[in-house]
Design a protein that fits this description.
The protein is α/β, with parallel strands linked by helices and about 260 residues long. The chain is built from nine helices and twelve strands. β4 and β5 form a beta hairpin. The chain is globular.
């Protein structure tokens, strides 16, 4: 379990995060959702270890990792721009982190990830030859071969659309389930958060507005900000009208073009 207790962060005297408290169970997919400047990326950076907190605790399996260096936490991130090496082919990008740590993943485990993410036919290609969705899958594979304890994703779907976006969402879900991997996603898009996650954390001005299951957020928004930010954006997105409906236990969103 990952627990965040009384976490606070300021930059240049401006408080970015105010007393953040939440718990994430092992294997859960949690999206951190909110408008630009709300503090969601700062929270991601604190969990990863890219930034230091002013106060509070970050507990992983009961151990406070707040003062543990980033490279020793075992948490890995897929950045929004993928950060792939353009001079290396797909296979060498995937296995780059294993050069100095070859025992982390076996050859069979690497091969299994390649097949899981549908990258077999692209292994000899240069990065410039790949589509956005293919680059995202390579970035996921490169991170997964290092066997992260927690997977962090920064706006993983922002550069994708249509069928490609749905394919990557399915892959993220499959990885989390197959590897029982706690996954934390930063996004500004309510649709992505509600259809991809087990739980959604909504942040406004550095504080938690609501934290819960997508169904609860849709049906029981806890304040006006959640209603306006979530429901209005879903109902008026790209000039289409969106209808919320259920399919099984998972909320879905269908577009009706009027």
């Amino acid at each position: 379990m990952l627990e965040i207790k009384n976490l606070k962060k300021s930059y240049d005297g401006v408080t970015i995060l105010h007393d953040i408290n939440l718990a994430i169970d092992d294997g859960e997919i949690v999206s951190i959702l909110g408008p630009s400047g709300c503090g969601k990326t700062t929270l991601l950076n604190l969990v990863l270890g890219l930034a230091d907190a002013d106060e509070g605790e970050i507990l992983f399996q009961g151990e406070n990792v707040l003062n543990v260096p980033m490279e020793q936490r075992g948490f890995n991130i897929v950045f929004q721009d993928y950060a792939l090496f353009p001079n290396l082919n797909v296979y060498k990008n995937i296995t780059y982190g294993l050069r100095n740590n070859p025992s982390i993943s076996t050859r069979q485990e690497v091969e299994d990830l390649i097949d899981l993410l549908g990258l077999r036919e692209h292994l000899d290609k240069k990065i410039e030859q790949l589509s956005g969705g293919q680059k995202q899958r390579v970035a996921l594979a490169r991170t997964m071969v290092m066997k992260p304890k927690i997977l962090l994703l920064d706006e993983p779907l922002s550069a994708l659309d249509g069928v490609i976006k749905e394919s990557i969402k399915a892959k993220i879900k499959q990885i989390a389930r197959d590897y029982h991997l706690t996954t934390i996603i930063v996004t500004h898009d309510p649709e992505e958060a509600l259809t991809l996650s087990d739980k959604v954390l909504i942040i406004q001005n550095g504080t938690i507005s609501q934290y819960g299951k997508p169904d609860d957020i849709i049906q029981k928004p806890e304040n006006d900000f959640v209603k306006e930010f979530i429901l209005n954006q879903l109902l008026i997105k790209k000039n289409n009208i969106f209808t919320l409906f259920r399919q099984g236990n998972e909320p879905k969103i269908a577009a009706q073009v009027g």
